[in-house]
Amino acid sequence: MAIFSVYVVNKAGGLIYQLDSYAPRAEAEKTFSYPLDLLLKLHDERVLVAFGQRDGIRVGHAVLAINGMDVNGKYTADGKEGSSGIEMLETDTFKLHCFQTLTGIKFVVLADPRQAGIDSLLRKIYEIYSDFALKNPFYSLEMPIRCELFDQNLKLALEVAEKAGTFGPGS
């Protein structure tokens, strides 16, 4: 499993940091000759496919309705709770995860679809940004991040995430 890239985007939409950290690895492909039943689970007020694949429905897809009946906990229109932007986008080759802070800074990670613990990694990257970029007296907000300590700690966090798969409290 791998983390391909990390991007930091300022509130105006400008790229202020980019790190490409992917070295290609060999993959093994498995083919199943029978359809698997779907196992659903509730996660963050959404019903997600936890196991199985059938007719284009894959693990991680959200189930919005069954037989026309709404099954999710997220509201979209008519004064109800809405979306604050992309949090995760999944393709066959990567998953894009995004964490937006209250100040508008966005942390984006492109990772292998099987990589676990990306939400924790995004919060860890935010912590590293706060500790090594924002506390640097030579760093100006909204400007590109050019701080060696930020680079070193970010690379260390990516290595830990790739090996362990998750970040626990206090890491």
Major sheet summary line? 5 strands, antiparallel
Indicate the overall shape: elongated
N-to-C series of helices and strands:
EEEEEEEEEEHH
CATH architecture annotation of the largest domain: 2-Layer Sandwich
Helix content: 10-25%
Count helical runs.
2
In CATH's first tier, which class of the largest domain applies? Answer: Alpha Beta
Name the structural class: alpha+beta
Widest sheet, order of strands: 2-1-10-9-8
Number of strands: 10
The CATH topology of the largest domain corresponds to Beta-Lactamase
Q: How far apart lie the N and C ends?
A: 20 Å
Fraction of residues in β-strands: 25-35%
Protein name: Trafficking protein particle complex subunit
Family: Belongs to the TRAPP small subunits family. TRAPPC4 subfamily.
Subcellular location: Endoplasmic reticulum; Golgi apparatus, cis-Golgi network; Golgi apparatus
Keywords: Endoplasmic reticulum, ER-Golgi transport, Golgi apparatus, Transport
Structural summary, described in words:
With 171 residues, the chain is α+β, with helices and mostly antiparallel strands. The protein folds into two domains: 3-23 and 84-164, Beta-Lactamase, CATH 3.30.450.70; 27-63, Pdz3 Domain. It contains two helices and ten strands. Strand 3 (39-43) and strand 4 form a beta hairpin. Helix 1 (118-134) packs antiparallel against helix 2 (148-164). The chain is elongated and about 50 Å long. The protein starts with a strand and ends in a 7-residue tail after the last helix. Mean pLDDT is 75; it is low at 25-36 and 73-83.
